[in-house]
Amino acid sequence: MNDLSALVRAIPDYPRKGIIFRDVTTLFSHAEGFRRTVALMTDYARGVGVDLVAGIDARGFILGGAIAMELGKGFVAVRKRGKLPAEVYREEYALEYGVDEVEIHIDAVPAGARVLIVDDLIATGGTAVAAVKLVERAGGTVPAASFAIDLPELGGADRLRERGVEVYSVLSFEGH
Ligand code: AMP
User: Fold this and answer.
1) Of 21, 96, 101, 120, which is best to mutate to test ligand 1, by the most ligand atoms within 8 angstroms of its C-beta?
2) Going from the N-terminus, what domains does the chain have, and what CATH number goes with each?
3) Is the distance from CB of 32 to CB of 1 less than 8 angstroms?
């Protein structure tokens, strides 16, 4: 399996007309595909040098947990509103389809920690920028963010770079 992109299933008009949903369940369920995706993202993170991995709810947990394990670092959850039990910081953001809110425990990040943001896909970057803000409010810094998939035409990776966050993605797809 040389072409990881062939393992990502494209679902046209989901969840709305005009969106091509990039379904990573088919990538994650393929043993070699999943292993190689995690290995590439882990190698990248090693080069950056991070203290913690923050995964974004929910597909970012699957990749982020595996990467943190490989790095021997801790994992922090950036969760959808209302899921975390202790005191939280909250950020609202606009999605490619809709509006949402994410939260982080206020004590999840030691002061000055270098935190890698991880998610399955970056589109407009709204979610990832909200995650960066949460980590910064919690006292950390975000040198880099890593994704299985980038949709560069939607500009999210550029938004992160403008904030000084380096961006890595294993795959890149044209269009929405
Ligand atoms: P954004 O905030 O626009 O960068 O959107 C990123 C988040 O929405 C990620 O958590 C993705 O899982 C999800 N997402 C957005 N667009 C797509 C898409 N075309 N296919 C699959 N997931 C998407």
Assistant:
1) 96
2) 34-172 (3.40.50.2020)
3) yes
**Residue 5 gets which letter from DSSP?**
G
pTM score: 0.97
Atom nearest to 129 CA in ligand 1: 2
Cα–ligand 1 centroid distance for 32 (angstroms): 23
Q: Which residues fall within 8 angstroms of residue 105, CB to CB, at 6 or more apart?
A: 76, 84, 86, 87, 88, 138
User: What are the pLDDT tens digits along the chain (176 aa)?
Assistant: 569 999 999 999 998 898 899 999 999 999 999 999 999 999 999 999 999 999 999 999 999 999 999 999 999 999 999 999 999 999 999 875 679 999 999 999 999 999 999 999 999 999 999 999 999 999 999 999 999 999 999 999 999 999 999 999 999 999 87
